Model the fold of this input.
Amino acid sequence: MPAPLLVPALLGVLFLVLPLVGLVVRAPWSQLLSSLAEPQIGQALRLSLVSATLATLLSLVLGVPLAWVLARSTIRGRSVLRALVTVPLVLPPVVGGVALFLVLGRQGLVGRWLFETFDYTIPFTTTAVVIAETFVAMPFLVISVEGALRAADARFEDAAATLGADRWTTFRRVTLPLVLPGVAAGAVLCWARALGEFGATITFAGNFPGTTQTMPLAVYLALQSDPEAAIVLSLVLLGVSLATLLLLRDRWLGRSGIPAA
Amino acid sequence: MRLRAPLVLATAGLLSLTACGGSSSSDAAAGSTAGTEDAGLSGTLTVFAAASLTDVFTDLGDQLMADNPDLTVEFNFAGSSALATQIGQGAPADVFASANQTQMTVVTDAGLAEGDPTVFTENVLEIAVPEGNPADVTGIDDFGDPDLTLAVCAPDVPCGAAAEQVFEAAGVTAQPDTLEEDVRAALTKVELGEVDAALVYASDVQSAGDSVEGITFPEAEDAVNEYPIATLAAAPNPEAARAFLDLVESDAGQQALTDAGFRSPGA
Done:
């Protein structure tokens, strides 16, 4: 490997890995087991995993068709649509939370109708957590899948058409299997982003143990009163994330491990 | 091309002359501050203060900057527990004003405060409801109603610690829907009309003006938060820190605090 690439690469690795090493080294290993037994940690972890998974599923249902529209359709204003869809990526998450409030809150544009008709409010519920996480994480999926769709060979779809398949069948049996590694990679990114979401969650969903206090929120609050507990929580989150990323990368993302882009 | 270097030097020379002339003008303004002799403070003053002090301290900071044109006052307003943690982690601050003694003790125990903190004001809790009180909240007992959407501060934040004391005094098992990380976040939820009621400080109810209504309750007297202030041992600008403290404790500063809904210490 050429030296001019090796040195920066090494620095990059150190920069990203050292903080994680610091977390492991500073962990209160003697108290670890007793800390883990505390109910709040189990609650936060369960909530985080469930909400991140639900957010990813919702993102798949909405995001894959959206990516298809962006990549394959010929409607006008696609570039504007793409820009709008990726706004949550550059928007500070807290701003996203405020925006969600203004639309889905009790006094919000849509939320007001929801409250008056069904007496149901979204903020401060687990639903709000899923919505907040989907808002920030879906663009990752859309971009990844759109990239995969663009790179996929359109000739297979043309062949399917000439053999008599309608567009829905083509999508189901030719396009989707072709871009599955890209979808999987996008889903993993989406899941990881949803798991780590903090700003939009604490602003829109609030903070309450068991209902809306996800792991990142629990870590933030623990840091102020009990730093050791915060480190334990961080370690658990790190471990779970690492395990998931390692498990998924080889199996679903193709031999090279690089998503089709 | 050849004219460039002399031109740059001349411009630099002119600029440095103007800089020299600016620092002496603050002496004239010194007499207008409430009895404090500021001999032209300069540099930056960093104040870490509890979220509830946002409006009052910003005004006092503006006043100090007006009296000392070379001084820039910067604030970090957040929950006192977050601030105490940041100071413990080495954040460069000159002054720390906490919303209760507990969080100041965190800083003094770590040996990071200069001298002893002084209590400069007090605050009591008040129930804040959106304009028009849509849920007809009447008192602290309503905080035990699971059907209402309620916001309370997180227990490690001074406002939340006081809330717990108040609930105990009133014999209420609180049913909050969210535990906010600082009192202003709880207040915002009320202003947006997203919660039926929140337990915030009397000063916050006042600062929100017409968009929020306040409901006082007797048990609030069981949890009066004393606000201590201290300069920090590692303060980069100790002179300005001292001046800010003097301003806060002066008659003008105390008046500003009581006008904002705070209470005189020991009241």
About this structure: Residues 10-37 of chain B have pLDDT under 50 and may be disordered. Residues 33 and 42 of chain B are 16 Å apart (CA to CA). Chain B touches chain A at residues 79, 81-82, 84-85, 149, 151, 154-157, 176-181, 189, 192-194 (CB under 8 Å).
